Amino acid sequence: MNSSRRLAPLALVAATALLLAGCADGAAPADDDTISIVASTNVYADVASTIAGDGVEVSAIIDDPSADPHSFEADARVQLALSKADLVVVNGGGYDDWANTLLAGANNTDAIVLDAVEISGLDTEPAEGEFNEHVWYDFASVAKVADAIADELSELDADNAATYRDNADTFIAGLTELQERAAADTFAGTGVAITEPVPLYLLEALGLENVTPDAFSEAIEEGTDVAPAVLLETTSLFADGTASLLVYNEQTTGAETEQVLSAAEEAGTPVVGVTETLPEGLDYLSWMSANLDALETALN
Q1: How confident is the model at residue 86 (pLDDT cuts 50, 70, 90)?
Q2: One fold for both 36-181 and 185-299?
Q3: Please, what is the Cα angle at 283 between 282 and 284, to 5 degrees?
Q4: pLDDT by residue (tens digit) across 21-79?
Q5: Which label site among 125, 151, 161, 223 has the fewest CB atoms less than 10 Å from its CB?
């Protein structure tokens, strides 16, 4: 599902080098002799770091686990890091278009750009409604991104190609275990409500059915008002038992999502919080394992 409210409204970013005031971000320039990877978020930075190992400089433009991804602002540090990047990993699908804009502004035409949505192939598959661009919650897509990172690193540094491939294979084996675990769960057809479509790929892997009115989750993602009738329909999902679980995006909240949260809690419906960026102290595999733990516990 495309959104005008993705990581940031960067209409102010021109395609020239800008020194923007804003939060202190994690992206940092690498030494000239070191391969540098810059990722749009710490999710992809963690995947890249897992494959690259210690000999590659990996940084994330958004690396603060507590940051609201929708209020991101870049600064000069980000521009400098992108100007020296050999490889840039973005989500794509319109989620982080600002990263490509910043890269163009950094005058770096040599950097290789890996677009996770394009790599996933999911946006070419026919589906009802709009495309859900949050592909980092889809294990098969993340495996394809890992493969692509290993391939590009092997091109940049042939001497260590075997290490990159081994690291990628180990990581992908971990993803396969998560896929098999999700497929083995017995929640098929269980109704679940969401505040945004961020975790839908993971919920679908568990066989859960999204019963949220499209108009509600679309309005929340787009940052527009929810019609009163739609809000009532959504809050009623818990009292009448249609939704057995609420999955709540903790990084995008407001009065309407709080009303839905309150309705779930009043009805005794379990609530599982999810995020768009990697929580502190976790890597990608442990993060997704923890998400599965929380969902399984709530549903059981």
Answers
A1: very high
A2: yes
A3: 120
A4: 233 345 554 456 899 999 999 999 999 999 999 999 999 999 876 666 656 677 788 88
A5: 125
Domain coordinates of the chain in residue numbers? 36-181, 185-299
Nearest CA to 237 out of 217, 207, 222, 218 is that of: 217
Residues 188-217 pLDDT 10s: 999 999 999 999 999 999 999 999 999 998
User: Which amino acid makes up residue 83?
Assistant: S
